Amino acid sequence: MNKKKILIEGWRGINHSYAMVNQYQLLEMKEMGLDLQHLDLPFYNPKWNPINNDSGFEGEDKQRIASIPSPKNTETHDTTYRISFPYRYYAAKSEKLLVFGTSEFQNIDGFIYQNELKEGIDNPGLKVITPSNWSKVGFLNAGFDESRVVVVPHGVNQKIYKPISPLRRKQFREALKVSNSEFLILSLGAMTKNKGIDILIAAFSKLKVKYPHLKLVLKDSSNLYGIRIRDVLDNFKKQNSKLLSENVVKSIISISDNLTQSQLNGLYGAADCYASPYRAEGFNLAPLEAAASGTPIVITKGGSTDDYFHETIGLQIESSLQKNKNATHREPSLDSLIDQLSILIEGKAMRLNNELTQQFIGNNFSWPVVTKKLVDIF
């Protein structure tokens, strides 16, 4: 039997989340021996490029991703899979068309070319791929039938994201100027409002009074989105001048540099806790990578991360569902975030179990496991 010919249309070479997911899936699909071709679509921001926004893949992995050939105009394919932004619902030459997308606020208005939405809904050969049940709702709200919206979660490369050695942890903490006796909280991402960084800063400011040995590391994605941690802190101080004291500011470590995947694993492993009091996410991969790196996580309850939360990997923040005409999100409780972080700081989280966490991720959320779910739809 001839192998199916698969055309992937997406982004390679940069560290945008869609590009990272695409590249991890490409590596797994090559491992499976699929007949693959890749069409590089234009980046959403023409300023993005592999030099300033490097993916962080190293050595052989980077070469393997780049080695997937481009299609020729005369070639036909069994399945086309698009993973880029805005979502492209125009018909493909192949019989099957899969289009990846996320719906952080359960509304996809502005995320697609509107003239293509009806074409996509009316095309029986098109399926929407989205990474969480929370995100799925946005595509149902847009008019897609439930049978055509498939949840395929993201995964973790456990060869990269794994618990680090005591020596490596010591080296990373020394580079951050964090002593062994200090408790280090980490969070990273775009620093946009949906990430809940303002809530984390508020919680840290309050906790710092009770626990002077606290430090907070914030890594932004300013190379992609232009929002720096300094901008977030300045804006927070304007609205909460009494809360953000000089002592608190001195205890916040900012990172804006691009990191390799190995360096990111080291950063996760250097932390005592990864905190993500998000309001709205399509999946939220960073906490899962942190958990795979051996670090307990604190994440919002009720959102996309419910799909992968397990009691051995951390704690959940109570939240309330907030709806308006154009958006739905979870509003994390500041008091609950403070309580959950306090449990970790005081060493009172009794159900954490790193060995079970590694097994749980490997069985359910490793890239080989989740990519097979995608390929089965091809």
Structure description:
- The protein has helices at residues 17-32, 59-66, 114-122, 133-142, 166-175, 197-210, 222-225, 229-239, 246-250, 261-270, 285-292, 334-345, 354-364, 367-377; strands at residues 5-10, 35-40, 79-83, 96-100, 126-130, 149-151, 183-189, 214-220, 252-255, 273-276, 297-300, 314-317, 319-323, 328-332.
- It has 2 domains: 5-156 and 366-377, Rossmann fold (3-Layer(aba) Sandwich); 166-364, Rossmann fold.
- The mean pLDDT is 95.
- The protein has a 6-stranded parallel beta sheet. Strands 9-8-7-10-11-12 form a 6-stranded parallel beta sheet, with helices on both faces.
- Helix 1 crosses helix 14 (367-377), helix 5 packs across helix 10 (261-270) and helix 6 (197-210) packs across helix 12.
- It contains 14 helices and 14 strands.
- The chain is of the alpha/beta class and 378 residues long.
Q: What is the succession of H and E elements?
A: EHEHEEHEHEHEHEHHHEHEHEEEEHHH
| Proportion of residues in helical segments | 25-40%
Give me the side-by-side strand order of the main sheet.
Answer: 2-1-3-4-5-6
* Tally of helical runs: 14
- How many domain modules? 2
Overall geometry comes to globular
Calculate Rg over CA atoms: 21 Å
Distance between the termini: 16 Å
Mean pLDDT: 95
Layout of SSEs?
Elements: E1 5-10, H1 17-32, E2 35-40, H2 59-66, E3 79-83, E4 96-100, H3 114-122, E5 126-130, H4 133-142, E6 149-151, H5 166-175, E7 183-189, H6 197-210, E8 214-220, H7 222-225, H8 229-239, H9 246-250, E9 252-255, H10 261-270, E10 273-276, H11 285-292, E11 297-300, E12 314-317, E13 319-323, E14 328-332, H12 334-345, H13 354-364, H14 367-377
Parallel strand pairs: 1-2, 1-3, 3-4, 4-5, 5-6, 7-8, 7-10, 8-9, 10-11, 11-12
Antiparallel strand pairs: 13-14
Helix pairs in contact: 1-14, 5-10, 6-12
